[in-house]
Amino acid sequence: VCRGLIKNGERQDEESVGGRRRTEALRHLCKMNPSQALRVRGMVVSLLLVCHENVNHRITEWWGLEGTSGDPLRKRDNISSVLWQMRRQLLLELMGILPTVRSTHIVEEADVDMEPNVSVYSGLKEEHVVKASALLRLYCALMGIAGLKPTDEEAEQLLQLMTSRPPATPAGVRFVSLSFCMLLAFSTLVSTPEQEQLMVMWLSWMIKEEAYFESISGVSASFGEMLLLVAMYFHSNQLSAIIDLVCSTLGMKIVIKPSSLSRMKTIFTQEIFTEQVVTAHAVRVPVTGNLSANITGFLPIHCIYQLLKSRSFTKHKVSIKDWIYRQLCETTTPLHPQLLPLIDVYINSILTPASKSNPEATNQPVTEQEILNVFQGLSGGENTRLAQRYSITTQLLVLYYVLSYEEALLANTKILGILQVCLKSNSESWRKAVLFRVDVYFLNIPKGLHSALLRLLATNYPHLCIVEDWICEEQITGTDALLRRMLLTNIAKNHSPKQLQEAFSMLPGNHTQLMQILEHLTLLSAGELIPYAEVLTSNMNRLLNAGVPRRILQTVNKLWMVLNTVMPRRLWVMTVNALQPSVKIVRQQKYTQNDLMIDPLIVLRCDQRVHRTPPLMDVTLHMLNGYLLASKAYLNAHLKETAEQDIRPSQNNAMGPEAPEVTREELKNALLAAQDSAAVQILLEICLPTEEEKAQSSNTHSLLKNVHSTTGPKSPELEEEEDSLLCNLREVQCLICCLLHQMYIADPNIVKLVHFQ
């Protein structure tokens, strides 16, 4: 009987005649047999679980049935219902937090038909802000999920609460954001011209006060950014993005029809936020200080990104360069996910005109001086403190901007030439200002930037991405390095570059002090070795003299490899100039980075004694491999930079527009192949013994026979010498094989022309 009464109950029958009889019958049955009361309760729960899929639908209908009829008699019947009482209590709570209410007072049983009492509201009190936010979210859930249809009275009170003006506190910022999203989600709350005017006045107040709220409340993500973002979405007709924004702010999934936003779109785009107003206002919004992924919500960076994407700044001739530069300078880890997309779309707006009819409609790039300011002082020494005002994240983001700009500029050179857009390439200055000073491997690249930055470096600067260097870096920064640093004493820290220079000047007579200082330097980290780099490289020619112990040479090689992980480009230039023949050193002939990229074989035109000094020959081979890779990247970039030369003659070329480009590409490949083949030939000739070495070899061979016959096995020093020579020869062989393989891929016929002895 109980199961039948529970299962066959009608919808919303709690206060109907049948519902009262059913409830009374269940109560009497439970009194007749109290031991079954728990079973009856369990029966109700189990039936609810079985009908779980229908419960939500029934609840939605249950909420929706209330307030759908305007008949006072129906309202009078519902006054005693639980749902009506709850709605009445919610309305009382809502009216209680408004200082003065412009509304009808709560309907009592005796005065249902009383006329409304109208008055003017004022600001929301601080102690009521949190409760007001909770009430707004509750009504959003009831209306958006449960399907509650508000009465005119409830709608009027909700609108009064939403358009109230809270104090400038974090809770007040949250309340304004919730109110704004609720207006977007339930636009039916605004039904009369007076209500629409009230909403417009409130939105205008938001625009005026958002900067004050952000400065006083201390909240970085203010409602001003949300206003701008919604305005931009309306201008670009991205209604689905507005719906997602509303749902994420309210914290609940609400079904919002795009058609319901049509009136709000008209108000935003024509009355409050025209596109020109949005653009002009966006550049005045302060940047977010210490921007990182820890700062959630909708920030100015989201607004600027959307405006850049829609090309609003170029359309209305508003400069955004300064704002982007300030924001890049105000970043920290963990990296905010919107920073890289912002840089990419900014670069696109610099290089790609908004329209073909107006090729000058582009944004301005960041100036060279601004880039120099970020990296000022990174060359090491006392000036390192100058760069401390900018975080590592800022420096890496600017580096990403520089590399991305160079790559995009080269990729669009031909298109820009067709459009007759003249953009000055600052790539050479940027290389000197950034890559020459930034120790690429030393920087701690944050998550989210590593893969993007590595792709740019591997594509445009392959000589900085040699796998051998990465393996060496792991050895330098691993557990062994940590253990070595534990042995670091104050004596090692006190050695200055001047003392190192004095120790070098004592060679070859006294090498004990130099060996001691070099051993202490091996305990330092790569960054701490930077001040010693110039002294170490400038004295390498002293190591070519006879009588220098092999241990000193190997230690210098070890220190050079450590420095190579933090300052490869500058180290290579200093080393090449230091190992030049004495004649060139006397003439003070200095090679630059550009010279070595154009002609990488300069590396092999060093002092001939280097070829017979395995530790220094190892350094030379490393630089040769790097500069061969750099030369390829340099020539590829040069080919793209001068792509406009293919455009002009191709217009009247009988061979077709593609002929000049193919010819220049072939010339480039021929030059690269000639460089590789020349390097192979020089290395092979280096391996050939000279006349003096042949004579010494025969003498040494006879001497070794006598030594073996009298003393037995070779000494450890002699074995070490032979192992170093063999290791050096293997490196030469590996480099030759790599060069031949690259030549074969470029043109298999070229390899056949190489003469091997």
TrEMBL record:
Residues 698-717 are annotated as: Disordered. The gene is Ints2. InterPro entries: Int2_metazoa, INTS2. Residues 698-713 have a biased composition (Polar residues). One of its GO terms (biological process) is snRNA 3'-end processing. This is INT2 protein. Its main location: nucleus. It comes from Anhinga anhinga (Anhinga). Keywords: Nucleus. Belongs to the Integrator subunit 2 family. It is found in: Nucleus. GO terms for cellular component: integrator complex. Pfam families: INTS2. It comes from the Eukaryota.
